[in-house]
């Protein structure tokens, strides 16, 4: 008999299962039933597509056996089964990178942590919350030899050949002394109904019960073996909407998401006509942990006429909808559609297009608290959608929200437009990575004064790439306020006059700063700040920079224009200053502090600090 060491991470995981996650132990039943159901799905597919298995008169079943005398619970299925390598690969190691992420994400809150179990696919090991010892006896469909994998959940497991008639898997669980509740028929039935009522196969509960025959002195009791189906065993999505209540949808979601939370929203549609299919989609209340991992798991399962095809196809929905969980069941796809060719399939492309639109329309309809929750979790991926999905850009633009310079909370483009200047039709925005810096930016001063709303986009990584390519929203052009003229009440002549009046000063500052700025000019956009910097939108580098950003590359530097506030005390005094060295220091400070207040860095931070210290000393 071969003894093997568990992979290190599994060792850690087992410890965790046995010692930490004890408040929600019942989920081990959900996890094992779900694995059984997956194994049945896989065999079902084979029996319908592979000649070798077609002759089988087969109907998939899960069974659960309770044995009070032996203090054991057994969960079995007649599904695809596992051979020796499968047992060692699937149960002795965790191939997925998920486990490490699982361990890192543990919060210490047992309820939350047990929800993570499903998300990270460490389902089988949850059995060690209740088991002293586990034997997995399995025979793979189409193979001769069966094997038994045994472990007591410490560091080692054994695998040996055994005899088993039919293909499938039996998991024998010797329960810990204090886990007798899982031998109670009602308790097990309750757990199965809660999590697994709508898996597509019958779950049979086998148990023994004392029955009394006769009455009084004549009465005799004997043990009777019973077997009954304890789940509905209907694929929920095939039922008419009118037969289903919210509770049914929520219950099914729990099976699907391996969790205990309610979904934020769901949509169930049957499409008839040239292309027939049913979809049932859920939007989780909280974004999946792996949403921003490159190896995220697909959330949608594909079925063809109720037969499970795959849960590993990331093309069923566009990537920005990767948080959606659910089912697509097509009537028209061939059962043996090659998994590789799914991508290019016209029917599937049509389903994808239709589903995407339906999901986005449902999201758009969310209101109040639900809409807030959605935006809190998914605003960023929706912006990703704007970038990648041109067909649904309009819908997506109605969903995303931004901070605003004049409103509390988040606002939509629609709300902005309803308040904006309907003649000018412009949407103003400023992008950066620090909300506070953006709100205090000198560039906002003129907009504040003119009472014009500016969208504060503080998710720079995404906004700086996505927003420039939005272009317009319902004929309203988006304008980056760091590149355009500010609103002001002065005429061109007045501006000209001020510019002339300060020409010698602006020339002198430019002389000091040299190539660091492209131009120095008087500003009409400032009220309380002495200076600000702007990107020169007419410079060819500016459009290049946007292109670079879209390709995810480092942006080339765009030359800056320094604007000074002619009404500011400092500028007035500077104009009259004779001390050359002080003039030079103050010119640099005008530039560097303007950069800082817009979230940019001074070129020479050390020199900046020295100049400030020297000025402070003079002021004392
Ligand atoms: N009853 C079973 N029949 C056949 N294979 C099984 C069975 N139970 C488990 N397996 C195999 O072992 C693997 C590991 O199972 P485990 O529950 O740990 O994770 P998972 O099912 O892959 O992930 P998740 O829990 O997220 O669905 C499964 O993917 C499957 O290949």
TrEMBL record:
Alphabetized Gene3D superfamilies for the sequence: 3.30.230.80, 3.40.50.11260, Heat shock protein 90, C-terminal domain, Histidine kinase-like ATPase, C-terminal domain
Positions of the UniProt region annotated as A: 1-339
Domain named Histidine kinase/HSP90-like ATPase: residues: 24-179
InterPro entries (UniProt xref): HATPase_C_sf, HATPase_dom, HSP90_C, Hsp90_fam, Hsp90_N, Ribosomal_Su5_D2-typ_SF
Keywords annotated in UniProt: ATP-binding, Chaperone, Cytoplasm, Nucleotide-binding, Stress response
Region (C) location: 547-620
Localization per record: Cytoplasm
Keyword Aminoacyl-tRNA synthetase included in the entry's annotation: no
Transmembrane region(s): none
Family (UniProt): Belongs to the heat shock protein 90 family.
Subunit details: Homodimer.
Function: Molecular chaperone. Has ATPase activity.
Annotated PANTHER family: HEAT SHOCK PROTEIN 90 FAMILY MEMBER
Protein name stated in the entry: Chaperone protein HtpG
């Amino acid at each position: 008999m071969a003894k093997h060491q568990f992979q290190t991470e599994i060792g850690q995981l087992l410890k965790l299962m046995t010692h930490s996650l004890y408040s929600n132990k019942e989920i081990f039943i959900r996890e094992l039933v779900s694995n059984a159901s997956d194994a049945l799905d896989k065999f079902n597919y084979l029996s319908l597509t592979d000649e070798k298995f077609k002759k089988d008169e087969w109907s998939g079943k899960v069974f659960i056996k309770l044995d009070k005398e032996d203090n054991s619970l057994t969960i079995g299925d007649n599904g695809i089964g596992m051979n020796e390598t499968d047992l060692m690969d699937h149960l002795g190691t965790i191939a997925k990178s998920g486990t490490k992420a699982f361990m890192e994400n543990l919060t210490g809150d047992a309820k939350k942590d047990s929800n993570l179990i499903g998300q990270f696919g460490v389902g089988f090991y949850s059995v060690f919350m209740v088991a002293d010892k586990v034997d997995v006896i399995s025979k793979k469909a189409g193979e001769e030899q069966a094997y038994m994998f045994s472990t007591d959940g410490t560091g080692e497991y054994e695998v040996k050949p055994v005899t088993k008639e039919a293909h499938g898997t039996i998991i024998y669980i010797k329960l810990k002394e204090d886990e007798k509740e899982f031998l109670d028929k009602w308790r097990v039935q309750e757990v199965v109904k809660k999590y697994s009522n709508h898996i597509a196969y019958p779950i049979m509960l086998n148990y023994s019960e004392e029955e009394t025959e006769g009455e009084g002195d004549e009465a005799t009791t004997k043990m009777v073996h019973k077997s009954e189906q304890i789940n509905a065993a209907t694929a929920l999505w095939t039922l008419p909407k009118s037969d289903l209540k919210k509770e049914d949808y929520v219950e099914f979601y729990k099976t699907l998401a391996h969790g205990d939370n309610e979904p934020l929203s769901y949509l169930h549609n049957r499409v008839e006509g040239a292309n027939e299919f049913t979809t049932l989609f859920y939007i989780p209340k909280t974004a999946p942990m792996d949403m921003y991992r490159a190896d995220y798991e697909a959330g949608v399962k594909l079925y063809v006429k109720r037969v499970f095809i795959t849960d590993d196809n990331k093309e069923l929905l566009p990537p920005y909808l990767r948080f959606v969980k659910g089912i697509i069941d097509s009537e028209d796809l061939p059962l043996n559609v090659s998994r590789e060719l799914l991508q290019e399939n016209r029917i599937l492309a049509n389903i994808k297009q239709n589903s995407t639109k339906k999901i986005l329309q449902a999201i758009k309809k969310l209101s109040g608290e639900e809409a807030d929750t959605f935006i809190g979790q998914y605003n960023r991926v929706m912006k990703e959608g704007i970038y990648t999905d041109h067909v649904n850009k309009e819908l997506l633009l109605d969903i995303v929200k931004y901070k605003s310079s004049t409103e509390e909370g988040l606002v939509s483009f629609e709300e902005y437009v309803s308040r904006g200047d309907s003649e000018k039709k412009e949407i103003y925005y400023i992008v950066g990575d620090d909300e506070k810096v953006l709100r205090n930016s000198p560039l906002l001063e003129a907009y504040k004064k003119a009472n014009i709303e500016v969208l504060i986009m503080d998710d720079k990584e995404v906004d700086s790439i996505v927003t420039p390519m939005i272009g317009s929203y319902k004929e309203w052009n988006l304008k980056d306020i760091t590149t355009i003229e500010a609103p002001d009440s002065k005429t061109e002549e007045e501006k000209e006059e001020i510019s002339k009046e300060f020409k010698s000063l602006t020339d002198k500052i430019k002389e000091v700063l040299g190539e660091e700025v492209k131009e120095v000019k008087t500003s009409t956009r400032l009220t309380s700040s002495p200076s600000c910097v702007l990107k020169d939108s007419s410079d060819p580098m500016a459009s290049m920079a946007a292109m670079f950003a879209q390709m995810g590359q480092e942006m080339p530097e765009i030359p800056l224009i320094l604007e000074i506030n002619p009404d500011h005390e400092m500028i007035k005094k500077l104009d009259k200053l004779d001390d050359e060295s002080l003039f030079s220091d103050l010119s640099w400070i005008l530039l560097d502090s303007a950069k800082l207040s817009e979230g940019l860095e001074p070129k020479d931070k050390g020199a900046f600090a020295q100049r400030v210290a020297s000025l402070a000393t003079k002021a004392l």
